[in-house]
Amino acid sequence: MWMVDDESERLTRDSRVLIRDEALNSYVRSVLCRAVGDDRCKGVRIYILRVPAFNASMSPNGTMRIYSGLLLRMRNEAELASILGHEFAHFELRHSLEDFRRRRSSSDLMAWTAVLGSLAVTYGSGAGHSYGDFRVSVYGALARFNRDQEREADLRGFGYMAAAQYRPSAAAEVWRSAMNETDATLTGRAARSKRYDGTPFFASHPTNLERADYLSTLANRVPGGEYEGRNAYQAALAPWLDQFLEDQIKLNDFTGTEYLITRLGSEQWTAPLLLARGELYRLRANPRDLPNAVDFYRQALALNADLPVAYRGMGLSLMRMDRKAEAIPSLSRYLELKPGAPDADMIRSLVAPQ
User: Fold this and answer.
1) How many other C-beta atoms can be found within 10 angstroms of the C-beta atom of residue 93?
2) Per-residue pLDDT of the chain (354 residues; tens, 9 = 90+)
3) Which of 104, 117, 253, 297 is the least crowded, having the fewest Cβ atoms under 10 Å away?
4) DSSP string covering 151-194, please?
5) Do residues 208 and 151 make contact, with C-beta atoms less than 8 angstroms apart?
6) Is the four-CA dihedral 267, 273, 275, 277 of positive or negative sign?
7) Where are the beta strands (DSSP E) in the chain?
8) From CA 67, how far away is CA 49, in angstroms rounded?
9) Residue 301 burial by CB count (10 A; 0-12/13-18/19+): exposed, middle or buried?
10) DSSP state, residue 18
11) How far is CA 238 from the centre of its chain?
């Protein structure tokens, strides 16, 4: 197992999606160290990967992997601390090692049962059906084991963030947001919400609703602190925010992305968020989307007049609305700001006299 983990870490370290920004890595490490304490975090090696998914993990050899999609979804340092504390708790409680041993013993058990089952079938006892039931039972036990580990890590991670004086209710907010984003995605795909479904027999994690409920109950009982670290978090993420938003938009999940951007802008709309919202609407390009996109671009430019992508998006949206006279000034401004852009020749052809 250790050899596999070490090899996996080597591949991660050489990956082209690894974010090597020292400032961002240093900041994320500082959040982990504040949450779990300097002594505990000094042996952890953190890798931030440019992957637009809500995920983080920690291996038994001390490597923590954090996806950029997770960083994009956090609004402040307290929310990030709740996730990092959770992942560290898995590591400290040696869940991966226990899980490996459990799966190993279960696999051995199933292998022997398969042999006995095949012998029984040969002699016409009908034990093949019993083997199928047994296999279901073993898989279910493995899933329950993982669910219990997740709850244990949730509780210990919560304890870390509360002891570090982070605002305790931030932990529940992360899972409520994940649940709402999933619902938004399902709505866009004309599928029903699963938030009120009970925990299925084979589910390896508690439902987001269950997690949000027990973490919210804890937040009402545990004093914790009031520190949120919103400004520090946004400053650390600022150099990467445009790229993370662009990665998210490329997932082609309009309703989920609209929910995410709106949540991030709930406390303050910034130029990058308004620009991303404009891009989201322009790329879907339903009849009512283009006027909305133009409005979002204008709001972004009102906050920052030097956003070439906003001029480009506004000009292209107006072109598609057959408002070329209004589009030309925006596209011309884009060319002034980015004369060497990869699409500059195409844009010049649009603004050239016909």
Assistant:
1) 14
2) 677 888 888 999 999 999 999 999 999 999 999 999 999 999 899 999 999 999 999 998 999 999 999 999 999 999 999 999 999 999 988 766 666 565 555 555 555 455 445 444 444 444 444 545 545 444 444 445 477 888 888 999 999 999 999 999 999 999 999 999 999 999 999 888 776 665 554 455 667 788 888 888 988 888 778 899 999 999 999 999 999 999 999 999 999 999 999 999 998 999 999 999 999 999 999 989 999 999 999 999 999 999 999 999 999 999 999 999 999 999 999 999 999 999 999 999 999 987
3) 104
4) HHHHHHHHHHHHHTTB-TTHHHHHHHHHHHHHHHHHHHTT----
5) no
6) negative
7) 45-49, 56-58, 63-67
8) 5
9) buried
10) B
11) 17
Contacts of 28 (CB under 8 A, 6+ apart): 46, 48, 66, 71, 80, 84, 236
Strands 63-67 and 56-58, sheet pairing: antiparallel
Q: Are 206 and 178 in contact (CB under 8 A)?
A: no
Q: Phi and psi dihedrals of 49, rounded to 5?
A: -115, 140
Contact 170, 78 (CB under 8 A): yes
Instruction: Please identify which residue in the block is written with the tokens 């304890």.
Output: 159
| Alpha helix ranges (H) inside 189-253 | 208-221, 230-249
- One-letter amino acid at 121 equals V
Q: Map residue 58 onto helix, strand or coil.
A: strand
Sequence-distant contacts of 202-207: CB under 8 A, at least 24 apart: 202/139, 202/140, 202/143, 203/143, 203/147, 204/143, 204/146, 204/147, 204/150, 205/146, 205/147, 205/150, 206/147, 206/150, 206/151, 206/154
Any idea which residue has 């030309």 for tokens? 328
User: What does the alpha-carbon distance between residue 342 and residue 329 come to, in Å, rounded to a whole number?
Assistant: 19
